[in-house]
Task: structure prediction
Amino acid sequence: MTQDDGTPQSGGPRAAEPLVSNGKFRETEVLIVGGGMVGLTLGIALASAGLRSTIVDRADPARLTTAPHDGRSSAIARGSQQALAALGIWHRMADGAQPIMDIRVSDGQVGRNAAPFFLHYAQDDLDAGTAGPLGYIVENRVTREALYARAAQLRDLTLLAPAAIAALDRNPGAVEAELDDGTRLKAQVVVAAEGRMSKLRQAAGIKITTWDYPQCGIVATIHHDRPHNGVAYEHFLPAGPFAMLPMTDTADGQHRSSLVWTERRDLVPAMMKLSDKDFTTELTRRFGTSLGTLREVGGRWSYPLSLLHAERIVDRRLALVGDAAHGIHPISGQGLNLGLRDVAALAETLVDARRLGLDLGGGEVLAGYARWRRFDNMALIAVTDGLNRLFSNDVAPLRMVRDLGLAAVNQMPPLKRFFMRHAMGLVGDLPRLVKGEAL
Result:
């Protein structure tokens, strides 16, 4: 049987049964703690391949899907889009996804302070095999709605929310958990998908390397007079990267972009207190008027920026995915994509193990997942951290070197195509989902 989009269905639509405090027992194959975008996608991937999976999440889905726009959008790389399409999710979010047709990178502010060198990624630079958008910008709210809708269709996926883990034991033979209402769960493996402050990671004694950047990110939705034509802009300023990312127009035709502004941490409280007029003035001073008059809508949000790297991403009957395993600087917009590649690799590892009759939580199975993800995770952490350090300053010799580097890449089509494919998530040992193939 298939869904209306042609993807396999493992059962008719059903909602999770309400939690009751009667010592209810549930047996599942995979227990996922954390029902954010990464955790939900993993549950959908496993259930679509017939693995009984249970997601436990503290957040109430009703609140998340009815909450007003919180200013947050995510870049969805081509590889991630192909994975979401293979799982029957993408068609539910496609109308709210703005294709990125060009990426224009420059060093310094507009006007007299602008550097004469730049880097321009255009879809026309791609070879025939990868022609198309470089990626997409999608509001997180739209992505969550699509994930919840797809999850509700899968008989092998149970979402318990709002709920929390009260106790968890990873013994040699199984994972046993108790929820805060007394419900008991038994699984072969547990996956930590509950973010940077992962309690499962902490309980396992997995050490982390962390670094607090002297920066905060400011996010907001910006309306502008002129269409963006699918162009993403990134200016490297002394305080950090400043990006304007194209979004879909509103229902009444208003042009929108997502602002991701990295600023010195000590200056951000004052920036957040600026009036709309003064904030727009500062915004225009950094970005210019290429999109016409800029107007902030819907408020602004800020959050501190930091790096996080877990020394290992597996332990006895435990695997880490997403921000529980790694947190990177938003300089390249790759945070969610890195987590979705974790999902694709872990899902393929577990599905293949199930087909071979192996213990899903066995040491060799999980070690295979860890080996697969080691290089990609380490490489992207190093690249994003290095780029931020290289460009977040105004030292003249460094500025000359990086500007010449941008110009050199821009004039070398083969090298530029490689970097474009890397940003699209199409380089390396790709899981089947990332290639758009079914599990």
